[in-house]
Structures are given as structure tokens and as C-alpha cells.
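REVIEWER CHECKLIST
Item 1: Sequence provided? yes
Item 2: Single chain? yes
Item 3: Sequence as submitted:
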Amino acid sequence: MFLFYNRAVLVQHSCTVRILLTNRCYSASPVRLGALQRLNEKCEQFLEQRFPHISVLYRTLMRGFHLLFEDVKEVRRIKRVMRTSNVQFKELPYRDMERLVLFRRDMVKAVSLLVISIPPFAIGFVFLLMCLFPRQLLFRHFWTPQQQKKYQAIDHAKRAQCHAEILKNIISVVPSVSGWRQRTILLNLCSKVQTGTRPSLSELQAVREIFCSPPLELNSLEPGSLRSLGSQLPIMVWFPSFITRRRLVTKALELLYLDRAMKNLGLDQLSEEQKRQACDLRGLNPSDLSSGQCRDWLQQWLQHSAQIQETETSLFLHSMALLTLNYPPVPE
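Item 4: Structure as written out by the authors:
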């Protein structure tokens, strides 16, 4: 099947190359372009009739390259604006900032795939790996709608485990927190989350000082706690602790600036899909949530995020777990 897929891709790719060469080297007439377009359509019909599964994969692959090309053009435009107008990342409008954040996340896999493809004659092996491990090697542009839904569920199941581990890590260091009053406040907060109740924003603000000092400040966290926090973003968590800590700070600040830009834009300016994408980016699974639930959670999150300073990255990262656990609330 993989050989058929490669052959079909080569046939279709040869048609595309002919079109590109014709446009590049000649002043192609409408008749010639029409003939090439009909040939291209016949190739697609052949794949759809003889190899329907491969046809779906091929269309997804071509659509993915188109979306990736559009992303590259948009990112180049944004970078050019930042360079010519001397605009920093945190000063960008929301949609440009979100485009950069998602593009950087996708490029982690794209660069890894490119590195694997460097050795001679490795492209066939890469295509095989792409078919066998699409979730690990590809990203959202190259997934079918069914794959996107499936992989999102897998990712959020892992995030849910990380959120539970984060809560356990907080509870384990409660005896090390200085001050009887602070220990009591933090323990009551954790107990409330354990019983299935979501903390209020005032309760989270009451413990903000605790996350700015040992043992819960970012520089004092154990490697296991750093990995749990990193797994909800996600980032590579198996690097040395100082690299993981630096990446956590970078990603936390990116989301913090993104929150401020979203608050300035207003939730009413976001489409349904954009709201769900925003929830997903912050660790909440939007697949089983209604539009109103997504909006309510984002509104509460933005209220909390607006009060967090750039130096309070530990509070920011732990809040992602504390506000995501037990949501949506179970009706009584």
C-alpha cells in the first residue's frame, strides 16, 4: 500500500511540477493551462476511484502544504512589520501573536522531520514514518479531521494526568511552606480542588505570594514538577532542568502576552473555532464543552491572568492546572 501511495504521489507531483515549470519558463496559454488542469483532475479521479484511502491521505497532504505555505507567508509579513516598525512580540495584535505562537509550536515537529530527511535516500523512510507515526511526526495541517479529533483527545488525556500530578506536587510541598497561615490557605485550596470544586479567583489570588517564594517558585521546583508543568504546554521536558525551566518561562510569557492581547481585542471578536483553539492552547479540552462554557472559562481565565505579573510565571503555570481541573462543574 505504501508503494502505491508513493507512486500515486509521484504521478500527481509530476503533474504539479509540469504546471510550475510551464508557468515559470513559458508564457503559458489558457489552452495549455486548461489541458494541464484537466490532466491534474484526471490523476485525482484515478486515485479516488482506485485507491480512496490513499486519495484522502494525498488530499490531506496537499492541503497541509498549502496551509503551511500560507502560514509561512503570514509569519514573514508579521516579522517584517516587527522589524520595520520596531514592534516587540508583546505589542502585536492578538491574531498576529497567536499565529506566531502556533507556528513556532508546529515548527518543532517540522524541523525534526527535516533533520530526519537530511541523509541521502532517506525520503522514502521518512514517508514510511509519516504513515506509521502521524501524531508524533506531523502536525495539525497534515491531519484529517478524524485524526485531529482523535489526537486532541489523546493529548488532553495526557494533560489531565499532568494536571493531577501538578496538584499532588503542590500538596507534597505544603509542609515546607513557611508560615502557618500560608500553609493553611494553600492546603485548603488543594483540598477544595481534590473534592471536585473549582477554586475562585480570590482564592487563587490569596496564594500568589506562596508561588513567588520557595518551594513553589520556578527556580526551586524539582525536576519532576518541572516536567509536569511542561507537559501541559507542551514542551520537550526531558532536557536538563535549567533548559526546561527556561522554556517554561518563555512559554508562560508568550501565553501571558497572548492573554493580554485577547483581553484588549475582546472575546466577542473571536469566532467559535478561535475560542475553542484558545481553550486548547491553555490546557482545557474544548471538545465536550458548549460555546457558553468555553466563553465562561476564558472569561474567568483572562480575569485571573490580568492580575499576574511577568515575574509570577510559577503561579501562571500552576493556575492552568488548578482552573482546568473539575471543569466543567458536575451539576448537582
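Item 5: Key structural point noted by reviewer: The longest helix spans residues 52-84.
Item 6: Recommendation: ____
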